[in-house]
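User: I want to check something. If I give you two sequences, will you return the structure for each one separately, not as a complex?

Assistant: Yes, each is folded on its own. Here is the first sequence with its structure:
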Amino acid sequence: MFRRYPSRHVGWCLVLALIAFANCAFGQSNWMDSPSSANPYSGLVSSRGGPYPSTAAAPVVTNWPTQSELSGVVPVDGNPNLSPTSANWIMPGDGQPDCVDANVYCEGDPYPQQAMFGETGGPWFWQVLPNGLIYRTYWAGVHEPRMGVVMMRKNGGNSFWDATVGARVALLRFGNGDPLHPQGWEFDVDGAALPRLTLDNVRDLETVDFRGGAFGAYGIGAWQFKVGYDHLSSHLGDEFAIAHPGSLADRINYVRDSLIAGASYYPVPEMRLYSEVGYAMNATGGAEPWEFQFGTELAQAGPTGLAGTPFLALNAHLREEVDFGGDFTAQAGWLWRGMSGQTMRIGAHYFNGKSSQYQTYNEFEQQVGLGLWYDF
């Protein structure tokens, strides 16, 4: 079944194997003595961190070096502190840099400003369901789509859970592929439910606001813009209605169908400034057409890693139905940012102004509490 090889062949194979082993163990630099060796690069290390696998991947040798020129060339297992006395006989074959400074990657800025605010940030191309967002949610905007919850106490001593269950996603982009700070044109959709539950005795649903919309976004350099449509409606909670007979007759059918436009700007990578205007084509239940909001966000730019970073977010929201009064929100705490720009935040929450639930849009609230937010 098995072919028998002559014993002399086995002997020659053993001899050749021993010669090869001896050459590897004791003669690594023998190629220096003769330019006719088959692979003169077996002892050199490439700038990419490993030995050249073959002559095809090695530099192109234009002139064979003399023994004196090779006095500084060190094999792989030699003294790494020495360097060639003359390198004009080697021409890189692939145009790669001679070396890489590891400190650039280990100790440098994880998200340098020049990369974040380039003119285009790379080639633009069509992307379906792209990674990241050109125009991100406002951290301290209480009606923004996200996943989050605030446990807070209102003026008067009552405690509540204010939750947000929603998301903002990009469907189509013509732009670059940077997930942290993308550039280009984008089409987004968003939606959220914002329920308020009582916290003192039972977990009854008191009120809930719903919002949803679609908009186009454009980002270039440090600027981002958006234009689109937004729907918002407010509803009385069923458990509150059961506990308070007759309350359905007094409920407010607050509805806004608005055209919105916003602008966002990063004067430095760690700071964002934004403003937005909305005009409701359809406004009922006490709502009136105009609303404005503006604010700022401060945090370390780029991915934060496990350690995270402190953050501060401020937002002011002005509404025509309350004589262009409105509310002010401040949030501060700790933030973690991922590779696609999504953030998880935990911290203190402060709200002062007209109610953040539009069933009671004309009532004053002062909220103090703690929040946990995941922003897209």
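And separately, the second sequence with its own structure:
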Amino acid sequence: MTHVAAPFGRRAAIVTGREQHGAYVLIRCRDRQGPLPHAGQFYMLTAAVRWGGGESERPFLPRAFSVLRADDSGLQFLIEDVGPGTKRLTELDAGEELLLVGPLGNGFAPPREGRKPLLVGGGVGIAPLAIWQDELGPHAQVLLGFRDRAHAEGARLLKRPTVATDDGTVGHRGLVTELLEGELDDRGEDVEVYACGPPAMLEAVRELCGKRGVAAQLALESGMACGFGACFGCVVPTVNGYIRLCLDGPVMDAAVLEAAAVAGPGH
């Protein structure tokens, strides 16, 4: 896996734009002090002001987000409002400050032995696949799964995806792993799968690839409070023992993961 080291400490980045993509909000920011991340790495994000809730305005913990895109113009993050912390982040607009730590963790590695990449994403987990497709090139095949039409708007952020929705309002009616199963049956072992999404989806990807002997790299989610391995909040089991996902992941080779590591709660 590939790794770009983060500068020490938290720094401020100016938000340069906010876009609505169906159920998701895309936040752009300019990080003048940090290096460009590699696909699959993540940042710990907080809003500079009003980062707390309740009568005492108790601060929220930072939130971990994979990078959607990164270039000389800045960083992009894809956020869904699923609670108080993410709601505050989706409210940020141009000119406000975003506090960040990163890039952190290990990202995706190139396909092995000449295999062709096959990208599989679910929900907001499409984020690291967008920057990875940018690096691989537009030829990289993409399969994406969403809950409904509003969430499927996120598919527009990647090039030429095949889409599945749970309710059938866009593309294939059913799960993205059904699309993956068909591709693996047709193409055999000449692919390497890259996946990010909800735990149940990742576990299904792990099982499908494992049974067919297909190489797979999974970008996992886990509760994180620091991103540096100090809090031990993101410990997951592997065949070689427990690891801290923020240090040894978030991208992991599917072959070393236990089922419990993939099926755990997201952040």
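Because they were folded independently, the notes below concern the second chain alone. The chain has a mean pLDDT of 90. DSSP finds seven helices and 18 strands in the chain.
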